[in-house]
Design goal:
The complex is a heterodimer of chains A (335) and B (104).
Chain A (H helix, E strand, L loop, with lengths): L1 H20 L2 H4 L5 H26 L2 H8 L2 H9 L9 H18 L30 H15 L1 H4 L4 E9 L2 E8 L18 E9 L2 E2 L5 E2 L2 E10 L2 E3 L2 H20 L3 H14 L2 H6 L8 H7 L8 H10 L2 H15 L4
Antiparallel strand pairs in A: 1-2, 2-3, 3-6, 4-5, 6-7
Chain B lengths: L1 E3 L1 E4 L3 E8 L13 E4 L15 E4 L7 H8 L4 E3 L3 H4 L5 E5 L2 E4 L3
Parallel strand pairs in B: 3-4, 4-5, 5-6
Antiparallel strand pairs in B: 1-8, 2-6, 3-7, 7-8
The chains are: A alpha+beta (335), B mainly beta (104).
Chain lengths: 335, 104
């Protein structure tokens, strides 16, 4: 198992270093998301470990994976694993082992190394029985929904989307850009939608892949797109485009007035919300402790942001990757 | 002047440059402008109905902006040291892997 953890650590280090070198750290406002992650990560990891332990008493890994449904919900937990240091070494290894097993159940290429990042519980054939007409609107909808979920990233992380594929059907290549939990966001502060799940299924040409954290990459051309809302193929795509754009604009306005404290509190709520499928499974509604909320009042930045940005800019990508790798790996070999 | 660029979402374009340092610069963007983004937040999608192309200094195939631009068919290129090369109001033309600044 340690070998598997090492491979995972290498993959995470590679993808994180690419993301950081691509300027992601520089563009996060008003703080690096990871500042708050560290702030509340200890409590989060303890909760996650306890919830998984309890869920595993009456469920196997497959049942838990079925409940979670999307690998991205777990990959985000793994990004928080630095905080696992609060657990004894055997618990850290047990936790990461369980998380790896869950992702293996959900995603065929669980590390996203081989370019076949398909969901094992997804059947594309039922959406492709009709002729797909060329329509640019679903692409635009995907673009705005992606921007919407990324806008929420500092508070919800990447809980609400999963890009997956490519799927081969009738010798054509398809990818799926899926957005979920749109109706039931964790916070009543954000605009919600009248539907819960939107899939944009695209016929593509070229190479498509997804990194471990769910970014779709590759040099590919979108040939056709169809819009599927709550599992129904939609022909009047313009109506959905308008509604989605209005929600994005409203969300954008809200964020213009956000303070650092607002972000910190919403990230906390968002992180714990991401455990909801597991808490539902064990019938216990975990909420952030009063202690965390108290700590977040008057939250102060404590990372040397400029120093980190300068370091990333001036350091070779291989060196960043190696340092991230060592940092992750050490969590599982030292007590 | 002519400079080499990297296509991220490939398509040639031309127009007048508006430099976007932050959100308050959105108001100065006109129809058919090209924007140079110094901060690549998702909000920029609000300009996509107006503009003809996007230039960035940082970012690549995995960046959030790339994913948004690809879905929207919005041309996106990277130009190293862009803010030292182009200024607000410059006319640029992106053709076959190069950007021409203030050249007819």
């Amino acid at each position: 198992m340690l070998m598997k953890i090492e491979v995972l650590c290498k993959k995470i280090a590679k993808d994180i270093s690419i993301i950081q070198k691509g300027g992601a750290i520089e563009t996060q406002w008003p703080f690096l998301t990871s500042e708050v992650e560290n702030y509340i990560g200890v409590d989060f990891i303890k909760h996650l470990s306890n919830i998984l332990d309890e869920a595993l008493l009456n469920n196997n890994i497959t049942q838990i994976a079925t409940k979670l449904k999307y690998p991205s919900m777990i990959t985000q937990y793994i990004a928080l694993i630095h905080s696992a240091n609060v657990l004894p070494l055997n618990k850290r290894i047990e936790l990461i082992t369980n998380l790896i097993s869950i992702i293996e159940e959900l995603r065929m290429d669980y590390l996203c190394n081989k370019g076949i990042n398909i969901l094992q519980n997804f059947d594309i054939s039922k959406f492709l029985s009709n002729d797909i007409k060329q329509d640019i609107i679903p692409q635009k909808i995907s673009s705005i929904l992606y921007a919407y979920t990324e806008k929420l990233y500092p508070t919800l992380m990447r809980l609400s989307f999963e890009h997956h594929g490519p799927y081969i059907f009738n010798k054509k290549k398809y990818v799926v850009k899926e957005y979920f939990n749109l109706k039931n966001q964790y916070s009543n502060m954000f605009p919600v939608f009248n539907y819960d799940n939107v899939k944009i299924i695209q016929e593509i040409e070229g190479d498509f892949n997804v990194d471990f954290f769910g970014h779709s990459i590759g040099d590919y051309k979108i040939v056709n797109s169809i819009l599927v809302v709550d599992n129904e193929i939609i022909s009047d795509t313009n109506k959905f485009l308008e509604e989605i754009l209005i929600n994005f604009i409203n969300l954008d306005k809200l964020f213009l007035e956000y303070t650092v404290e607002d972000y910190a509190k919403n990230l906390t709520n968002g992180l714990f919300y991401s455990l909801k499928p597991l808490t539902t499974l064990i019938n216990k509604d975990w909420v952030p402790s009063k202690n965390i909320i108290a700590k977040l009042n008057g939250f102060k930045l404590f990372f040397p942001r400029d120093k980190i940005i300068n370091y990333i800019k001036s350091t070779d990508i291989n060196e960043i990757e190696f340092k991230v790798y060592l940092s992750f790996k050490n969590i599982f070999i030292k007590d | 002047m002519k400079y080499g660029i990297e296509y991220i979402v490939k398509k040639d374009f031309l127009g007048t440059i508006k430099i976007i340092k932050n959100r308050s610069d959105f108001n100065k963007v006109n129809e058919n402008d090209i924007i140079l983004l110094l901060n690549t937040s998702p909000d920029v999608i609000l300009l996509f109905n107006k503009i003809k192309g996007v230039i960035i200094e940082i970012g690549g195939q995995t960046s959030h902006l790339t994913i948004i631009a690809r879905e929207s068919n919005m041309p996106l290129i990277r130009l190293n040291n862009a803010k030292e090369i182009i200024t607000d109001g410059d006319f640029v033309k992106v053709v076959e892997g190069n950007i021409y600044v203030n050249e007819n």
